């Protein structure tokens, strides 16, 4: 099973790319770590108790749920607190992800996409067979975040703090096997309404009709998903997948070998980039 890590930066377009992948007729399963991150802090979860013990009861809303903007304001912009937040949440998120991956493997899935904003920061790229980076400029990230979240009380300073809590997108490029360029604008009808059902001037593939994304991103996602389905869909790729699925030790050795060789190649790319 090919585990694809889909990453990017805040507001670079990961969710938009994920929506496109999920809508593709190949029905590739997708695990969204932002959603798992919400599940592990639901009321009654040990992770929520650990966060309250660390950051205080003022991160809770009146109904006992996590007040997300309040916690965000406490941690983003303060590297030490961001590190503590990661330490308290990431273990539980990873465990949920691992169980979901086992479930998909048992079901005989050939490709699973893991959407994670912090794939590089948290070192999870090492466990992926392919890393896909959704890219746009930092200025676009900032303005798209404000456009999306101002109503939720996000200020320009909050947006800058959130951007600074992550690695710059440029420094994530060496980790990526594929870069999806999301710098093109949305079609006028969808960007002005914020909705997206009116897709008359959409040049993208027909299955992506109605999704609020640029035609350029739709085409890139179409090519990417086709490359995955071609890899395992027929011939020797399909036989290799079948062998790995029915003989789990073979699958494990092959997965470890892929991870090892990708890791070495990526570390060399990162070293070369840091010398430039
Ligand atoms: C601090 C929290 C409550 C703020 O919630 P809020 O609803 O305002 O933001 P949301 O969860 O939608 O995240 C939006 C984006 O912020 C960025 N972000 C989230 N957590 C982090 C982090 N620990 N470090 C850097 N950036 C982060 C990501 O790009 C993410 O896509 C929340 O982000 C959280 O629980 N973070 C810790 C868990 C985590 O690391 N999640 C990322 C997926 S592993
Ligand atoms: N090409 C584009 N042009 C303008 N806006 C866009 C474009 N692509 C996406 N957006 C908008 O930018 C915002 C961020 O996109 P999206 O939610 O896909 O990013 P994300 O990387 O998942 O963000 P986060 O990490 O914060 O969850 C959304 O409001 C989305 O509609």
The total strand number stands at 5
- Mean of residue pLDDT values: 90
Number of domains: 2
- The separation of the N and C termini measures 35 Å
Number of helices: 12
What profile does the largest beta sheet have? Answer: 5 strands, parallel
Radius of gyration: 20 Å
Percent helix, as a range, is: 55-70%
Poorly predicted regions are: 191-201
Backbone shape: globular
**What's the CATH topology label of the largest domain?**
Rossmann fold
- What percent strand? 5-15%
Sketch the topology as an H/E string, one letter per element: EHEHHHHEEHHHEHHHH
Question: Based on the structure given, which CATH architecture of the largest domain is correct?
Answer: 3-Layer(aba) Sandwich
Keywords: ATP-binding, Kinase, Membrane, Nucleotide-binding, Transferase, Transmembrane, Transmembrane helix
Region (Disordered): 185-212
GO molecular function: ATP binding; dephospho-CoA kinase activity
GO biological process, one term: coenzyme A biosynthetic process
Structure description:
The chain is an alpha/beta fold and 276 residues long. It has two domains: 1-29 and 111-151 and 167-185 and 204-271, Rossmann fold (3-Layer(aba) Sandwich); 37-108, no CATH class. Helices cover 55% and strands 9% of the residues. It has twelve helices and five strands. The protein has a five-stranded parallel beta sheet with strand order 2-3-1-4-5, sandwiched between helices. α3 packs antiparallel against α5 (79-106) and α6 crosses α7 (156-164). The longest helix is centred in the middle third of the chain and has 28 residues, at 79-106. It is globular. Residues 191-201 have low confidence and may be disordered. Bound molecules: dephospho coenzyme A (COD) and adenosine-5'-triphosphate (ATP). Dephospho coenzyme A is lined by residues 10, 33-34, 37, 41, 68-69, 71-72, 75, 82, 85-86, 89, 93, 116-118, 162, 165-166.
């Amino acid at each position: 099973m090919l585990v694809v890590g889909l990453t990017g930066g805040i507001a670079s377009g990961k969710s938009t790319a994920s929506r496109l992948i999920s809508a593709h007729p190949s029905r590739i399963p997708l695990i969204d770590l932002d959603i798992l991150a919400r599940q592990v802090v639901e009321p009654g979860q040990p992770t929520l108790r650990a966060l309250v013990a660390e950051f205080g009861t003022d991160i809770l809303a009146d109904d006992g749920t996590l007040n997300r903007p309040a916690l965000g304001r406490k941690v983003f912009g303060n590297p030490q607190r961001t590190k503590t937040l990661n330490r308290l949440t990431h273990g539980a998120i990873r465990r949920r992800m691992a169980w979901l991956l086992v479930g998909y493997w048992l079901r005989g899935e050939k490709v699973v996409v893991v959407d994670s904003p912090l794939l590089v920061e948290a070192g999870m790229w090492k466990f992926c067979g392919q890393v896909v980076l959704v890219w746009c400029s930092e200025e676009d990230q900032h303005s798209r975040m404000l456009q999306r979240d101002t109503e939720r009380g996000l200020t320009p300073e909050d947006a800058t703090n959130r951007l600074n809590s992550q690695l710059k997108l440029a420094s994530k490029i060496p980790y990526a096997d594929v870069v999806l360029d999301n710098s093109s604008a949305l079609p006028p009808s969808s960007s002005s309404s914020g909705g997206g059902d009116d897709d008359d001037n959409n040049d993208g593939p027909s299955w992506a009709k109605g999704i609020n994304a640029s035609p350029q991103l739709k085409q890139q996602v179409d090519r990417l998903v086709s490359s995955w389905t071609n890899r395992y869909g027929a011939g020797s790729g399909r036989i290799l997948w079948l062998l790995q699925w029915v003989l789990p030790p073979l699958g494990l050795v092959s997965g470890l070998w892929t991870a090892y060789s990708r890791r070495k190649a990526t570390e060399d790319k990162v070293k070369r980039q840091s010398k430039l």
